[in-house]
Design brief:
This is 50S ribosomal protein L7ae. One of its GO terms (cellular component) is ribonucleoprotein complex. There is one protein chain. With 107 residues, the protein is of the alpha+beta class. The chain is 50% helix and 19% strand. It contains 5 helices and 5 strands, in the order αβαβαβαβαβ. The protein has helices at 2-13, 21-29, 44-57, 67-73, 87-97; strands at residues 17-19, 35-39, 61-64, 81-84, 103-106. The protein has a 5-stranded mixed sheet, sandwiched between helices. The longest helix is centred in the middle third of the chain and has 14 residues, at 44-57. It starts with a helix and ends with a strand.
């Protein structure tokens, strides 16, 4: 788990992460988002919104982690949703989280 958080921090320092509902939705629509990570403790409405949007635009989605941990890993307060805008970082994080039990959903 720590490895995934370290990778998220590295991606943030590289400027390859966008956060926030509207900014992530815009990145999904413009095909800028290569991977979306949604906190497992997000509301059901938020989960449905991002599942539907990612499904429509064929963007991989990971639901898992806690909002506090997502925020801390990128040096910010709590975060519900993140989008990685770099294919290399997205592939690296998908590979890391595919083996974790804390991740509830990977699409």
């Amino acid at each position: 788990m720590n490895k995934a958080y370290s990778q998220l921090g590295l991606a943030m320092r590289a400027g390859k992460i966008v956060t926030g509902d509207e900014i992530v939705l815009k990145a999904i629509r413009s095909s800028e988002a290569k991977l979306v990570i949604l906190a497992g403790d997000a509301s059901p409405n938020t989960q449905k919104k991002f599942r539907d949007k990612c499904g429509t635009y064929k963007v991989p989605l990971i639901i898992g982690f806690k909002r506090e941990q997502l925020g801390t890993s990128i040096g910010k307060p709590e975060r519900i949703v993140l989008a990685l805008t770099d294919q290399g970082f997205a592939a690296m994080i998908r590979k890391t989280v595919s083996n974790l039990s804390e991740v509830e959903y990977i699409e």
